[in-house]
Amino acid sequence: MASGNGSLAKAVIEATHSGELSAHVLAVLTDQPDAEVVSKCAALAIPIITHPLEQDREAWNEELFFITESLNPMLVVSAGFMRILSPDYVSTYKVINSHPSLLPKFPGAHAVRDALDAKESITGTSIHWVDAGMDTGEVITSCEVPILEGDSEELLHERIKIVERGLIVATISQVLDLLETADE
Ligand code: GAR
């Protein structure tokens, strides 16, 4: 699932193509039909499902359920997806999320800006299980990124995303191994 540029989604898809990640991406779902992630998926020949937010949030949640049910994924990966998933959804599916801070510090939609505003010297990225809260699920992996003098939100976020792309691929691999073992 992705809402924006889709560089994390692209890194995951490419890792499956190169064999670095032993997994098959069934589809990418976005709530933003005009987002960059759509053309990235098209270029990589990955099915993209657009599911724009409707006024009726309940109906949107329900449709998301049906879409996911039809794909029957082993794992749902929120990679830059800027929507909160319903408690029902996250208790039905195994969902992980990539977040641009060292959780539990700076949850929410402005994690990079919040770390800069707090005058931190180190921030980073965390991959966590998604529960019903906002970025509150158990952290699986994380990686530090130093904040440099003169960093803007954009510069810092780009440096975090370089680390994030590697971490999400490694973490998906780790989680799939875990789920496969649990299945045996
Ligand atoms: C990533 O930094 C991801 O952690 C963040 O959006 C970016 C997506 O980058 N997600 C959140 O902030 C969710 N709270 P991308 O569009 O280039 O893949």
TrEMBL record:
<dbReference type="GO" id="GO:0004644">
    <property type="term" value="F:phosphoribosylglycinamide formyltransferase activity"/>
</dbReference>
<dbReference type="InterPro" id="IPR004607">
    <property type="entry name" value="GART"/>
</dbReference>
<feature type="domain" description="Formyl transferase N-terminal">
    <location>
        <begin position="2"/>
        <end position="171"/>
    </location>
</feature>
<dbReference type="InterPro" id="IPR036477">
    <property type="entry name" value="Formyl_transf_N_sf"/>
</dbReference>
<protein>
    <recommendedName>
        <fullName>phosphoribosylglycinamide formyltransferase 1</fullName>
        <ecNumber>2.1.2.2</ecNumber>
    </recommendedName>
</protein>
<comment type="pathway">
    <text>Purine metabolism; IMP biosynthesis via de novo pathway; N(2)-formyl-N(1)-(5-phospho-D-ribosyl)glycinamide from N(1)-(5-phospho-D-ribosyl)glycinamide (10-formyl THF route): step 1/1.</text>
</comment>
<dbReference type="InterPro" id="IPR002376">
    <property type="entry name" value="Formyl_transf_N"/>
</dbReference>
<comment type="similarity">
    <text>Belongs to the GART family.</text>
</comment>
<dbReference type="GO" id="GO:0005829">
    <property type="term" value="C:cytosol"/>
</dbReference>
<keyword id="KW-0808">Transferase</keyword>
<dbReference type="GO" id="GO:0006189">
    <property type="term" value="P:'de novo' IMP biosynthetic process"/>
</dbReference>
<keyword id="KW-0658">Purine biosynthesis</keyword>
<dbReference type="Pfam" id="PF00551">
    <property type="entry name" value="Formyl_trans_N"/>
</dbReference>
<dbReference type="InterPro" id="IPR001555">
    <property type="entry name" value="GART_AS"/>
</dbReference>
